[in-house]
Write a structure and sequence with these properties.
- By secondary structure, the protein is mostly helical.
- It has a domain of about 60 residues: Dockerin domain (Type 1 dockerin domain).
- The protein has four helices and no strands.
- It binds calcium ion (2 copies).
Amino acid sequence: MNAAIHYNSIIDYTDKDTDTETDTETDTEEDVLYGDVNNDGKVSAKDSMSVQRHVIKLSQLSDEQLKSADVDLDGKITSKDALYILRCSINLAVLPVEK
Ligand SMILES: [Ca+2]
Ligand SMILES: [Ca+2]
């Protein structure tokens, strides 16, 4: 599910043939697992670490990773996102974070 999805196809739904049925769902338009930055299927401290490394510019996340990393949905990747991911990994938060 990772490399097959392109950024643009998520936006305009060309990837899905059931565009009307998605309206009944209240979850977001992508099947991003928020917080799972390294895409191993679960949210862990490793994901938080990846975000932190991005924040301090030790590494660069891909577009898909940036989507799953922005767990407070403010459009930016900050240490807050890393913190929320860490909290989620120990079941102290649910992602994406409600504001
Ligand atoms: Ca992960
Ligand atoms: Ca954010």
